[in-house]
Amino acid sequence: MLTFKIVEFDFKEKKTLEERKMATVGGIKEVDGNQNSLEIESLARFAVDEHNKKQNSLLQFEKIVNTKVQVVSGTMHHITLEALDGDKKKVYEAKVWEKPWMHFKELQEFKYIGDAPSGSSS
């Protein structure tokens, strides 16, 4: 009986590990260390420019606050950024879908989150 319980426990443990692996496929993951890389900054600037074209806005990119990625058919970049709207710094979330092998890049979403904390600088 003791052996049976160990086998049962091991089976449950493997199943749980497998379930955890499956849950992360396509999941959104934090970008470690290089969120202010030139590549990510270029994507953030692209998002602001595309938003400006679509909404006839004049936002100016300031800085990246946070970045996450999600593997889809390509990569979905979830970028939290600060931009100047007139003289006010505001925080936005942008989703940029990228397929580098096809030279494809598209702004999927751009939404206002709130005003930037006072004292935040570039």
From TrEMBL:
Coiled-coil ranges (or none): none
PANTHER family linked to this entry: CYSTATIN FAMILY MEMBER, MULTICYSTATIN
Keywords, comma-separated and alphabetical: Protease inhibitor, Thiol protease inhibitor
Transcription regulation in keyword set: no
Name this protein carries in UniProt: Cysteine proteinase inhibitor
Molecular function per GO: cysteine-type endopeptidase inhibitor activity
Cystatin domain mapped to chain residues: 23-113
SMART domains cross-referenced by the UniProt entry: CY
GO biological process terms on file: hyperosmotic response; response to cold; response to water deprivation
Pfam families found in the cross-reference section: SQAPI
Membership in a protein family: Belongs to the cystatin family. Phytocystatin subfamily.
